[in-house]
C-alpha cells in the first residue's frame, strides 16, 4: 500500500457508527463473552491479534467439549451479527427452514456444521464494525490479515489444525485473495460465486462505470470505528486500469489448495466471469467446477449443495473417504429455461470439444454462418437498438464464451457505450427467461459491454474466444470513421431446439434494468452516448461456442 504513489493510494473516509446500520440486528456490545447458543458453545468477540498488533474480532461456534475440530472460516465485511434469515429478500427462493438463525449472511450454517464435527468462525475484518484498524479491502493488507486469522484458528487448543473456507460473493473473493499466500493450515477452499477482477467485473463493465451495485456495496461496507476505503470515490477517481487497480489484482495462478468452485450462469454482470476465470487460472491438483443456472443463495443453501460441501470438506479437512474423488472435474447445467436444464459433465473448462461458429450480421436483422452480411444498421444512441436473429434448424447447444465483433461508427459523438444481450426465443417468438441475479427469472442468455474508446486489445492475454482489454488508455472516435471493436460476452450455457432462435441485441444503455433501487442490481447511468450508432454489417459477426451434440460428454 505504501509503495503506491500518492495519487494511486486509496481514498479513505471516516467510518459510520456501527450501531447505526439500518436493516441489521442490534450490534452486540464490545467485549468477549461465552455462552450456550443453539446447543453449541458460542464465543463472541474473541480477539484475534494480527502481525502488527491490531485486534479484530471473531465469533466462534463449536460443539461443547469436542476437540480435534477442523474450522470453517467465514470472512465477511457485512457484520458477523448479520444473519441470513434477517437479510434475504423473498424472491431469492431461500426457504428460512433450510438454515438456523445463527447462519451468517452468505456463509455456512454453524448448527449444521457443528453437528457434522466442525467449528465455524465468523470474522469481522480489520476496520469493519468493532474490529480495530482501518478497513483496506481486497488488497495485500486484507490478504495478510486473513492469513494471520487462519493461523490463529488452527492453533486453538480444540482445533485439529485444518481450516477450510466457504461462502458466497465477498466470502468467495477473500478466498482468491488469501489462498495464493498458501497459509499452512488452509487445506481446502469453496468459493461460491465471487469476483476475481475488481476492475472488469465490479467497477467497470467493458470500461463503462457500473453505477448501481457498486455504490450500494460501498455504503454497505462503511461501518467502522475508524476509517474505511471509500469504494465509490475510488471507482470515480480511477476510471482507467492503473496502479490503484493493480494493487487489487489476484495471483490466481498461485492457488494450489483443493478447490470446489461454484459459478452461476445467472450472475451476468456480477460473478459469472470471475468465478470461471478463477477456476481456469488456479493450479490446484484437485479442483472441481460446478456451474448452475439457479438463484445463487437458494442454490448455496439447498440440502444437495450442502451435502456436496460436506463431502468435499470431510475429505480434505478430515481425511475421510467420500464421493469427492469420483466427481467429474466439471459439472454444469445446460439451460432450457429457468428451472429446466440438462446436466453435462466434462473433463475441463472451457469444454474441449467446443467449435466456434461465426454468425455474420446482416442489415435485414438476421445472423447466418453463411455468406457475410451487408449494409448498415443505425439506431439512436440513447433509446434505440439493433436486433439480429438466428433460428436453429436442429438441436444446438451453446456452452462457453461468445464474443461480438463489430465495425462501428458514431455520428454526433466521439465515444459510444455498447451494451449487448443474447436471448432465447421459443418457436412462437416469445422470449424464454432465465435466472438473473439472486431474484429474477426473466434474465438473458448472456451479457456483454464495451466503451468504444477502450477497444484496444492486449494481444498477449486475448484468445480467439475471449478478447482482453487492458483499459489503460482511451482512443476517442472521429466523425465519419469506423473502427472495429471486440466485445467479450460473459460465459453461458443454453440449449436451443429446432425452430428456436438466438437473438442478439445491441444498444446504448442497459438492456436489463429489473431491480428496484434497493436491490443489488447492476446499472450503468454514466454514459457517453449521443447522436446515432452505426453498425457496418459486412465486417461484423457474433462468434458462439457450439458444442457438437454427437461428441457430447453428457
UniProtKB/TrEMBL annotation:
Keyword Hydrolase: yes
SMART domains referenced in this protein's UniProt entry, alphabetically: PepX_C
Superkingdom of source: Bacteria
Keyword Hydrolase found: yes
Location of region: Disordered: 1-30
SUPFAM superfamilies cross-referenced by the UniProt entry: alpha/beta-Hydrolases (SSF53474), Galactose-binding domain-like (SSF49785)
Domain Xaa-Pro dipeptidyl-peptidase C-terminal: residue ranges: 310-543
GO molecular function: dipeptidyl-peptidase activity
Keywords of this entry: Hydrolase
Pfam families: Peptidase_S15, PepX_C
Matches recorded under NCBIfam families: CocE_NonD (TIGR00976)
Stated name of the protein: CocE/NonD family hydrolase
Gene source species: Aurantiacibacter rhizosphaerae
Amino acid at each position: 500500500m505504501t509503495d503506491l504513489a500518492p495519487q494511486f493510494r486509496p481514498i479513505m473516509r471516516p467510518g459510520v457508527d456501527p450501531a447505526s446500520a439500518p436493516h441489521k440486528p442490534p450490534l452486540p456490545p464490545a467485549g468477549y463473552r461465552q455462552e450456550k447458543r443453539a446447543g453449541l458453545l458460542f464465543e463472541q468477540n474473541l480477539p484475534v491479534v494480527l502481525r502488527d498488533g491490531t485486534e479484530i474480532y471473531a465469533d466462534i461456534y463449536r460443539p461443547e467439549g469436542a476437540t480435534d475440530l477442523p474450522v470453517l472460516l467465514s470472512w465477511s465485511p457485512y457484520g458477523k451479527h448479520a444473519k441470513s434469515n434477517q437479510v434475504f429478500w423473498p424472491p431469492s427462493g431461500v426457504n428460512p427452514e433450510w438454515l438456523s438463525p445463527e447462519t451468517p449472511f452468505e456463509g455456512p450454517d454453524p448448527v449444521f456444521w457443528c453437528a457434522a464435527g466442525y467449528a465455524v468462525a465468523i470474522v469481522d475484518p480489520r476496520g469493519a464494525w468493532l474490529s480495530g484498524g482501518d478497513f483496506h479491502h481486497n488488497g495485500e493488507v486484507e490478504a495478510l490479515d486473513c492469513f494471520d486469522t487462519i493461523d490463529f484458528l488452527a492453533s486453538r487448543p480444540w482445533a485439529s489444525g485444518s481450516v477450510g473456507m466457504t461462502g458466497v460473493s465477498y466470502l468467495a473473493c477473500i478466498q482468491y485473495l488469501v489462498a495464493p499466500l498458501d497459509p499452512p493450515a488452509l487445506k481446502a477452499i469453496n468459493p461460491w460465486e465471487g469476483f476475481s477482477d475488481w476492475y472488469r467485473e465490479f467497477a467497470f463493465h467493458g470500461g463503462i462505470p457500473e453505477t448501481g451495485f457498486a455504490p450500494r456495496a460501498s455504503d454497505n461496507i462503511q461501518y467502522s470505528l475508524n476509517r474505511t476505503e471509500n469504494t465509490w470515490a475510488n471507482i470515480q477517481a480511477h476510471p482507467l486500469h492503473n496502479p490503484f487497480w493493480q494493487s487489487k489484482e489476484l495471483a490466481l495462478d498461485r492457488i494450489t489448495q483443493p478447490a470446489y468452485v461454484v459459478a452461476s450462469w445467472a450472475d451476468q454482470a456480477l460473478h459469472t466471469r470471475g468465478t470461471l476465470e478463477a477456476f481456469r487460472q488456479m493450479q490446484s491438483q484437485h479442483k472441481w467446477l460446478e456451474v448452475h443456472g439457479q438463484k445463487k443463495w437458494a442454490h448455496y443453501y439447498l440440502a444437495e449443495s450442502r451435502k456436496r460441501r460436506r463431502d468435499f470438506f470431510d475429505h480434505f479437512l478430515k481425511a475421510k473417504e467420500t464421493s469427492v474423488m469420483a466427481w467429474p472435474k466439471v459439472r454444469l447445467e445446460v439451460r432450457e429455461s429457468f428451472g429446466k436444464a440438462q446436466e453435462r459433465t466434462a473433463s475441463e473448462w472451457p469444454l474441449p470439444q467446443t467449435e466456434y461458429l461465426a454468425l455474420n450480421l446482416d442489415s435485414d436483422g438476421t445472423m447466418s454462418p453463411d455468406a457475410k452480411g451487408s449494409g448498415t444498421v443505425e439506431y439512436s444512441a440513447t433509446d434505440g437498438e439493433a436486433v439480429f436473429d438466428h433460428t436453429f434448424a436442429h438441436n444446438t447447444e451453446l456452452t462457453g464464451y461468445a464474443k461480438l465483433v463489430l465495425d462501428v461508427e458514431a455520428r454526433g459523438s466521439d465515444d459510444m457505450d455498447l451494451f449487448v444481450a443474447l436471448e432465447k426465443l421459443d418457436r412462437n417468438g416469445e422470449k424464454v427467461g432465465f435466472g438473473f441475479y439472486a431474484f429474477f427469472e426473466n434474465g438473458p442468455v448472456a451479457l456483454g459491454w464495451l466503451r468504444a474508446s477502450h477497444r484496444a486489445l492486449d494481444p498477449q492475454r486475448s484468445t480467439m474466444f475471449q478478447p482482453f482489454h487492458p483499459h489503460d488508455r482511451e482512443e476517442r472516435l472521429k466523425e465519419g470513421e469506423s473502427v472495429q471493436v471486440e466485445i467479450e460476452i460473459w460465459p453461458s450455457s443454453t440449449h436451443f431446439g429446432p425452430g428456436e432462435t438466438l437473438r442478439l441485441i445491441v444498444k446504448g444503455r442497459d438492456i436489463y434494468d429489473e431491480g428496484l433501487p434497493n436491490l443489488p442490481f447492476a446499472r450503468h447511468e454514466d454514459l457517453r452516448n449521443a447522436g446515432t450508432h452505426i453498425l457496418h454489417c459486412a465486417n461484423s459477426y457474433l462468434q458462439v461456442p457450439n458444442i457438437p451434440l454427437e461428441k457430447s460428454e453428457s
